[in-house]
Amino acid sequence: MPNKSPSTHYPAQVLHEKTESHTLSVLVDNEPGVLARVIGLFSGRGYNIDSLTVSEVSHEAHLSRITMVTKGTPMVIDQIKHQLERLVPVHVVDDLTIVAQEAGHEKPLERELALAKVVGKGDRRVEALRIAEAFRAHVVDASTEHFVFELTGRISKIEQFLVLMQPLGLVEVARTGVAAISRGKEGM
Amino acid sequence: MAKIMTGAEMVIKALADQGVKHIFGYPGGAVLPIYDELVQQDKVEHVLVRHEQGAVHAAEGYARSTGDVGVVLVTSGPGATNAVTGLTDALMDSIPVVCITGQVPTHLIGNDAFQECDTVGITRPCTKHNWLVKNIDDLARVMHEAFYVAKSGRPGPVVVDVPKDIQFASGTYVGPSNIAHKTYRPQMKGDQNAIRQAVELLAAAKRPLFYTGGGVINSGDTATKLLRELAGMAGVPVTSTLMGLGAFPASHEQWLGMLGMHGTYQANLAMHDCDVMVCIGARFDDRITGRIDAFSPDSTKIHIDIDPSSINKNVAVDLPIIGDVAYVLEDMIRVWRNLAPDIDKKAQAAWWKQIDTWRAKDCLKYKANVDIIMPQYAIQRIYELTRERDTYITTEVGQHQMWAAQFYHFDEPNRWMTSGGLGTMGYGLPAAVGVQVAHPDSLVIDIAGDASVLMTMQEMSTAVQHNLPIKIFILNNQYMGMVRQWQQLLHGNRLSHSYMESLPDFVKLAEAYGCVGLRAEKPAELDDAIMEMVKVDRPVLFDCRVASLANCYPMIPSGEAHNKMLLGDDVDDELDSAVGEKGKVLV
Ligand SMILES: Cc1ncc(C[n+]2csc(CCOP(=O)(O)OP(=O)(O)O)c2C)c(N)n1
C-alpha cells in the first residue's frame, strides 16, 4: 500500500527482509577519537551494537582492532561495512560472519571472557564450585564466603554459566565482549 | 624545504603551498596569531564575512564554481559552532571545504575555558574527517592531509582545529609534496568486467535512461564531456538530480529536465518506465525515488559511484560500478567503440516517441497573468536576459529554488550552486559572494525567497566591502512559499506561521547597506528592471513582487510513485476550493 499518511513526504519504511546478526572486524589507526567516530557512526545512522571490544593489536603500526557484533537486514549490514570503510582512519572491515559462511562454517571463531562474583555459604557454595569446574571456569579470587570465577568461551556458554550461577549467589559480572577471528590460514 | 616557523606561519604557508588564493573568515581570540600572519603577507587574500555560516557557504560557492577547495578560517567556540550548518551542508552535497578553527590552548582543553567547545566532537558527524592538532610537528602534515582528504574520492568538508599555543609554537614546516594520507585511497578505476556488462546491458536496452547527479560535476570537466559523448553514441535520454544540473546541456534534444519531487513529467515517467537505468554519480535520494517499492519497477539498475556506501543504500541495484565517473565513462566509451553494438533502433524509436508524448504534456506550463508577475515568468525572463552572458546562479531554498531549477537552463557544469542535500535557507547569498570572489567579472545572481534571504542578509556588507557586485533577485511572495504550499496540500490549508509578517522594505534595506535596491511589481516593468540589475556594477537587492499563492508543480505527492505526479492543470480546481475566499484576495 502506498503511504497514505497525509503529513509526510518521506517514503515509508520498507520492512520485509529479516534481520541477521553479524560479527565485524575493523582495523583502525589507533589515534585519538577513532572509537568515537565508529560509535558515533552507529548512533548517528541508527545501527545496533550488541557487543564491542577494542584493543591495540600492533604497537609499532599503531593499529587497533575493533570487534563488533551488530544486527540488521543484509542491506543494512552491507551499508554498515561501507560506512565504516568511509571513515578515514579505518583500514579494513571484514564481515567475519560472511567470511565464515563462505567457507562453509556457521560462524567465525568467537570468544568472550567473563568475571563472575558469587557469594554464598554451605551447599550453595559447593554447588557453585562444582558447576564452575564443569564449565572449566577458574577461581581467581576466593574467601570463605565468595568466589570470583574467570570463564572464557563462546557467548552461549557464558550466558548459560551465568544463568546457573544466578540462584547460587551471583552478585556481579564483568564481561569483555566478543573477540572474533576467522578460521583457516588466511589473515585479515 | 624544511624550515623552522611558528604554527600560525605554517598555516598560511600551507595554504599558499596548496595554491589557495582566497579564504573566507572571521577573527576571534583563538585565531589572532593566524590573523596576524595573514595581514603581513599577500599570497592568500582574506574575505571578511559577517557570520561564520556565511564563510562556509561562500567557500562552498567558491568551490562549486571553480572545482577547487574552498577555505574557511574561524575562531573557537561560537566561531566553530556557527560554522556547523555550512559544514553539514557541504557534507551532504559533497563539496570540498577545509575549515580551520582556532581552539583554546592545549592545557585548557576540557576545562570549560572561555570560548572553548569540543569542536572535533561537534563536527565529527558533519565532516568527512577532522583533526585536533596537539603537537606543532603534526601541523604542516595535517594541513596538507586536510586538503588531500577534502578533495579526494567523494569530496567533503574537513576541520583542522588548532589550539592557540600551537599557533605560537615553532616547529619544522614540511611542504605538500608526497603527503598523501596513510590509508585513505579512493578507488578511481571501475571493475572492467562490470563495465563490459554495463555496456552490454545498455546496448541491449529498449528503454534506456541516464540518471545523473552531482558526482558527475565533482568528477570534473572530463566527466561532463564524456557523459555527453556516451549519451550521444548510445542515443540515451538524460535526466539529472538538482545537484547535477549543467553536467548535460539543457539545450540538448536528449535532455528530459530534472527528475524527482518537482521534476518534469517526462523525466519521472521515463524513470518509472525505463528498462535499463544508468545512475551516474547520484545516490537515489528520497526526493528522487518517492515510494521505494514502486520506484522504477521494471528496470535493470546500473550504479556508477565513487562511494561504495552509496551503493544499495536506498535502492538495491543490479550492477554496481565503484569508481570515479570520468574513469568509468572513459572505459565504457572505449568498450562501446570496440563492441560497436547493434542497438535496437526500432525499440528506441518507440521509446523516444513515448517520451515525446510525455513532453507534449508541457508539464511546466502555468497561467500567465498581465497584472501580476508569476514567479515562473520572472525566472524565464532572467534566463532569457542573461543566458548569453557569463552567468552563475545560486539559490536559497524553497519554491523559488525549484522554479529556478525548472526554468533556468544550464548548458555547462559549475554554473549552478544550490543547497540540495541539507536544503539550507540562507545558502544562496553567501554562496554568491564566494562565486563572485572566484569570478570577479561574471554575472552572479542569487535567485532568492523573501524568507530565506533574511537568514544571511548580513553578508550584503561583505559584498559591499569587497566590491562584489552580486545580484540578489528576491521572488517576494510574502510567504515561506514552500511551507505554505505543503500546508495547503497536506494540512488542510491551515497556514500556520508561514506568512512573512513585517518584511523589511528591501529597497530601503539595500540602500542602508550601501548597495542598489530595485523593485518590480508588474510584468511590464520586469525586463527593464532586470536589465538595470544586470548592468549596474554594484551589489543589488531586487525586490520582485510575485503572485503570493502560486504553487510549484509538477509535484510527486507524499509517498507516491513517479507515475502519480500532480500537474498544475490537475490540481487547479482542487486548489481553488482549498485556498478559500480570504486566501484568494492575496493572489
Ligand atoms: C534553515 C532552514 N529552516 C527551515 C527550512 C524549512 N523550509 C523549507 S522551504 C521554506 C520556506 C522558504 O521560503 P522563501 O525563502 O520565502 O522561499 P519560497 O518558498 O517562498 O520561494 C522553509 C521554511 C529550511 N529549508 N531551512
**Major sheet of chain B: size, sense and barrel closure?**
6 strands, parallel
Q: What is the average of the pLDDT values of chain B? A: 94
| Oligomer designation | heterodimer
Residue share in helix of chain A: 25-40%
CATH architecture of the largest domain in chain A: 2-Layer Sandwich
Strand order of the largest sheet of chain B: 3-2-4-5-7-6
Total count of helical runs of at least 4 residues of chain A: 5
- Report the top-level CATH class of the largest domain in chain A: Alpha Beta
Poorly predicted residue ranges of chain B: 576-587
Rg of chain B: 25 Å
**Structural class by SSE content of chain A:** alpha+beta
What is the β-strand count of chain A?
Answer: 9
The domain count of chain A comes to 2
How many distinct helices of chain B? Answer: 22
Query: Helicity range of the residues of chain B?
Result: 40-55%
Give the CATH superfamily of the largest domain in chain A.
Answer: ACT domain
Which word captures the global form of chain B? globular
CATH-assigned fold name of the largest domain in chain A: Alpha-Beta Plaits
Alpha-carbon distance between the termini of chain A? 45 Å
Q: Biggest sheet of chain A: strands, sense, closure?
A: 5 strands, antiparallel
Notes on the protein architecture:
The complex is a heterodimer of chains A (188) and B (587). Chain A has 188 residues and is an alpha+beta fold. Chain A contains five helices and nine strands; from the N terminus they run βαββαβαβαββαββ. Chain A has helices at 34-44, 74-86, 96-102, 122-134, 155-165, and strands at 20-29, 51-58, 63-72, 90-95, 109-119, 138-142, 146-153, 170-175, 179-181. In chain A, the strands form two sheets. In chain A, strands 5, 6, 7, 8 and 9 form a five-stranded antiparallel beta sheet that branches. A four-stranded antiparallel beta sheet of chain A has the order 2-3-1-4. Chain A is globular and about 65 Å long. The N and C termini of chain A lie far apart (45 Å). The longest helix of chain B is centred in the last third of the chain and has 18 residues, at 568-585. Mean pLDDT of chain B is 94; it is low at 576-587. Chain B is an alpha/beta fold. Chain B starts with a strand and ends with a helix. Helices cover 41% and strands 17% of the residues of chain B. Chain B contains 22 helices and 20 strands. The complex binds thiamine diphosphate. Thiamine diphosphate binds at residues 396-400, 423-425, 449-452, 475, 477, 479-483 of chain B.
